[in-house]
Amino acid sequence: MVETALMAANRYRLRHLAKRGNKHAIATIWLLERIDKVLSLVLIANTIINAMITAMVTAIAITAFGNHKEVLTIATGTVAFLLIVFAEISPKIIGATYSERIALNTSWALKPLMVLAKPAVWFVNLFVSGLLKTLRIKVGNTETSERLSTEELRSIVLEGSNFIPKKHKSILLNLFDLETISVEDIMTPRPQIEALNLATSVDEIKHQLTTCYHNKLPVYEGEINQIIGILHVRKALALLNQTEDLTVKHFRDLLTPPYFIPEDTSVFTQLQYFQENRERLGIIVDEYGEVQGLVTLEDIIEEMIGEFTTSMASATGTAGTSAYSWNAQHECLLKGTSTLRDINKYLGLNFPLDGPKTLNGLLLELLQDIPDASISLKVANCVIEIIQVQDQAIKIVKLIRLPNHQISE
Description:
By secondary structure, this protein is α+β, with helices and mostly antiparallel strands. The chain has helices spanning 2-8, 11-19, 23-32, 35-65, 69-97, 99-116, 118-134, 142-145, 150-159, 166-177, 183-186, 202-211, 233-242, 248-252, 267-277, 297-305, 340-347, 359-367, 404-407; strands spanning 188-189, 196-197, 216-220, 227-232, 260-262, 281-285, 291-296, 331-335, 376-379, 382-390, 393-401. β3 (216-220) and β4 form a beta hairpin. The two termini are 55 Å apart. The model is unreliable at 310-319 (pLDDT under 50).
């Protein structure tokens, strides 16, 4: 029973109790670190006791009923049955059922017994080690075997949903996903970047600075691929109040060097890079150096804990999480720039993610043409109706979720 309880005990909970100063947990962990010796001690004691009981019952039976074949058979069978029921199966079931309670309550007695029985355990283990070496069996490292993979940790979080608050569970699962997605999946796409063009007039620059939504703006000259720096809007606004004869050079002097990110960088890696380089905003470029979008530290944080509630209008033009919901008719109106990952996440759909990143990109890939309005097609488990097309792009679409019996058709 004791060895079963020790093997079945939750080691992570025991370590938690030990860190809080629980003496029984500390003793139990000490025993688990020497589990081979504990098993030797328990099995030695168990074998000796079982052998003594069998010998005693046999001797008593012979004394009482005589040295007959039938007496020996009945006595041996009875002792074997009682030992199997009361000394093997029942204790092991109890030990597995109440593993933590039994392990904690018996650790205080096993620890001194380990010290007293050390010579006997050493002698037996000497032969055991020799046998294992002869059979070329390597004893595994318990520390290595206790390490959990990301998927195993994910399973623990999912199975512990009754004990973990829903929001905490969501954050933990999102953390596991950070290594499987790239910055390209969460970036603000190039057409939606709010940036400042120094090739325009000073009046136009002033107007954009006083109406922009962000604290930092990428600054380019001529076209978006020529990003020359990042402008802190607060510094620029202070400049507007202090200087009368403003020139482009005044704004250029306020720029900080841009921070560029390859488009296939994983989100988790980028989070580390942001921390190491003390950056909060990066420009995402492809293999040719062309600007694909931008990502901020806030984008990564939102990927982990969910979108922040804000009274400010979205500067990127994308829909917030409130837009991703089905109405009573199982319909949802979305912008073509909505990302497929967000649609899958909030609407429970299964659009492919190995190609285009937005709804507009997916539809253009499927149709292989710029469509007219009022075209519908079935993708995954819903019908997509194109509502508005403008400037060679799909602007507005309607998603219609199909009933289950139509999905299978």
